[in-house]
Amino acid sequence: MKVKLILPALAEAESPFWRPIKYSLFPPLGLATLAAFLGPDDDIDLQDQHVEKLNLDDQPDLVIIQVYITNAYRSYQIADLYRAKGCYVILGGLHVTSLPKEASKHADSIFLGPGEETFPQFLKDFKNKVPKKVYSSSIRTLTKLPPIRRDLIKRYKYLVPNSIVVTRGCPHHCSFCYKDAFFQGGKSFYTQLVDDALAEIDRLPGKHLYFLDDHLLGNAKFASELFEGMKGMNRVFQGASTVDAILRGNLIEKAAEAGLRSVFVGFETFSPQNLKQSNKKQNLKKDYEAAVKRLHSLGIMVNGSFVFGLDDDDKDVFKRTVDWGVQNAITTSTYHVLTPYPGTKLFKDMEQQNRIITKNWDLYDTRNVVYKTTNLSATQLKEGYNWAYKEFYKWSNIFEASFNHESHKHKLKHLLYSGGWKKFEPLWNFLIKTKNLNNMLPLLESILSKVNYKPNLIEINSKSPLKTQM
């Protein structure tokens, strides 16, 4: 059987603000995971439109397309093209689960939620010529999964080919989070067996890893055993965590000892009212500065995530957010315009309040304003978002933030990582075009090398009040 797996490019890929390097980081791991369930005699082609031109002249027996909100229209066009040829097309992913009626018009079968249980069942049905129109996930487990088909991934096209996911979902339920709808009907957060996760890590070549889990520290027992097992594996890795998990216990120390060198933290907003509105309870009454200091004391760089446009935001929120990031030596900042994704509580609330102004999914990229704002006008929000990115990554602010670290090595790491990520776009583009992107991995590993630290110098009180009000 000829099988084609496709990740269509996001709409942002055609934007003048598109950064090719941003979409050349991680391979389509979800599709490679599904491919593991296919047979050894199947002819499999996995294509990622972000890094290659799609070949649409073929006629496979089965076409599998992963759909996100801003590649939805492109996904539907590709699906319609293949269905017109007589190919059997299935669609799955976040957007399909959020809007199944919309997606079903363009597919022979759709998949709602994770596919580890439903895809093997589909393959049995397909071979018996009795496939269902809808497959909905209810059993949530990561045990006894076949190894991911990493042989299908074109490693040389990605800066971080060693991406890995050892958990699914998140234990928290923020009102704007796209993932909540995806995991309805079953467990919303679950993990691999530790031994299986360690075996997957052991199969990966090189030194660097990037955990794409929404919350790597979300299950303390699992994470503690994982980090214990990673000791001595000589890995450096990046991942994501919440402020609460960083402040609680000594799990973050165990992560650092295992090789954690950079962490994505969802600060989102410093306004308690905004946190309540977003149901981001895990951040309420947490000391953001203490969390950052604790990470820095462990030699861990911080990628802070911030959302603009929540109802309590005013016109000064952009400057306050940038200033806080620079003063606290945040290595990189990721800013978002609040986006009410379909399937989320935020979308339902705004739709009931008649605040949704467009359902053009191409605009739901966290760069555009798609809802009626309150304290800020749509123009102020959009311009403030653009200004924040430009201001935070000014050379003067990169240098200032770098020199706010105590360790000289951490100052240099910050400067190289932050400056290199945002200030050398022509070089990244050249490396991508000449297929040399993967050759930058040794430099990345060097930047992520260990910074010597003295633990327990900072007294952390997880119940301390929020220092910075915005």
TrEMBL record:
Entries under CDD domains matching the protein: Radical_SAM, radical_SAM_B12_BD
Domain Radical SAM core residues, every copy: 156-377
Ranges of residues in domain B12-binding: 2-133
Keywords, ordered alphabetically: Iron, Iron-sulfur, Metal-binding, Methyltransferase, S-adenosyl-L-methionine, Transferase
This protein's record includes keyword ATP-binding: no
Keyword Transferase: yes
Entry's Gene Ontology cellular component terms: cytosol
Cofactor(s) essential for the protein: [4Fe-4S] cluster
Family annotation (SMART domains): Elp3 (SM00729)
SUPFAM superfamilies tied to this protein: Radical SAM enzymes
Highest rank taxon of the organism: Bacteria
Gene Ontology MF annotations: 4 iron, 4 sulfur cluster binding; catalytic activity; cobalamin binding; metal ion binding
Cross-referenced InterPro entries: BchE-like, Cobalamin-bd, Elp3/MiaA/NifB-like_rSAM, Methyltransferase_Class_B, rSAM, rSAM_horseshoe, rSAM_sf
Name of the protein in question: B12-binding domain-containing radical SAM protein
Organism: Hyunsoonleella pacifica
